[in-house]
Automatic annotation (TrEMBL):
Domain ABC transporter: 2-250
Protein name: High-affinity branched-chain amino acid ABC transporter ATP-binding protein LivG
Gene name of the encoded protein: livG
Gene Ontology CC: one annotated term: plasma membrane
Database matches in NCBIfam families: PRK11300.1 (NF008449)
Similarity annotation: Belongs to the ABC transporter superfamily.
Length: 251
């Protein structure tokens, strides 16, 4: 579904990503791990269209997408969250989910003003999807609260719901467990697995919480100083000498 080949990203004199290759297949959870500053978020930014990579190819469902803008990529069915929560804080929880769908569908302003039957039918569907995902992530009772007033763990779940209402085939999560307590991390773990098992979504994940990564990943890619260091199943990665050295070196 996603193939990244020899991806490179240079910022002036700094080669932040150097020949990274990875892939995500249908219904797979794939993680990217590596020490701080390894280039993980830069890889995400290139894949999701926030940066134009300086080298390499990115194919999503067979189509080359490197250099395409983020909104075009998300319409192809690849959506992401950010390391720091990015919600519309002064909007309600449900409004955040409605706006996400508007932006995704590029709703025609005129149709909205005239409220054509087609427009109204789509509005109804959007609301149904929002309600469904709020139930699913346990936020339905908070639907009319301002998003900025939610607890941090709830904001994280809302971000995932906001991605899911656009019905993606690939969901990219950048450090979703950052700042969560152990109980919230376990809930998140179950939620991510259910996205794959119940909704056939593939997940590409950046995460520092090793128990989460080892517990749910089908495959893991390790990068260090911008370069690929190892890839394999959680078991293979756990036993890889280079990986052990890179992590011990960081400690
Ligand atoms: N827009 C940018 N301009 C210049 N340098 C950048 C830019 N974005 C990232 N970098 C640099 O690229 C390198 C990789 O950063 P990146 O954020 O991708 O690492 P990371 O693995 O995600 O780190 P962390 O785990 O701490 O989030 C760092 O040296 C960073 O300073």
């Amino acid at each position: 579904m996603l193939e990244v080949k020899n991806l490179s990203m240079r910022f002036g004199g700094l080669l932040a990503v150097d020949q990274v290759t990875l892939d995500v297949k249908e219904r797979e959870i794939v993680s990217i791990i590596g020490p701080n500053g390894a280039g993980k978020t830069t890889v995400f930014n290139c894949i999701s269209g926030f940066y134009r990579p300086t080298g390499g190819k990115i194919l999503f469902r067979g189509q080359e997408i490197q250099g395409k803008p983020d909104y075009k990529i998300s319409r192809l069915g690849m959506v992401r969250t950010f390391q720091h929560v990015r919600l519309f804080n002064s909007m309600t929880v449900v409004e955040n989910l409605l706006v996400a769908q508007h932006r995704h569908l590029n709703t025609n302003l005129l149709a909205g003003l005239v409220r054509t039957p087609d427009y109204r039918a789509r509005e109804k569907k959007s609301l149904e999807r929002a309600r469904y995902w709020l139930e699913r992530v346990g936020l339905i009772d908070l639907a009319n609260r301002e998003a900025g007033n939610l607890a941090y763990g709830q904001q994280r779940r809302l971000e995932i719901a906001r991605c899911m209402v656009t019905e993606p085939t690939l969901l990219m999560l950048d450090e979703p467990a950052a700042g969560l307590n152990p109980a919230e991390t376990r809930d998140l773990d179950q939620l991510i697995v259910s996205l794959k098992e119940d909704y056939n979504v593939s997940v590409l994940l950046i995460e520092h919480d090793m128990s989460l990564v080892m517990g749910i990943s089908d495959r893991i890619n390790v990068i260090n100083q911008g370069r690929p260091l190892a890839s394999g199943t959680p078991e293979e990665i756990r036993q890889n000498d280079d990986v052990i050295k890179a992590y011990l070196g960081e400690a």
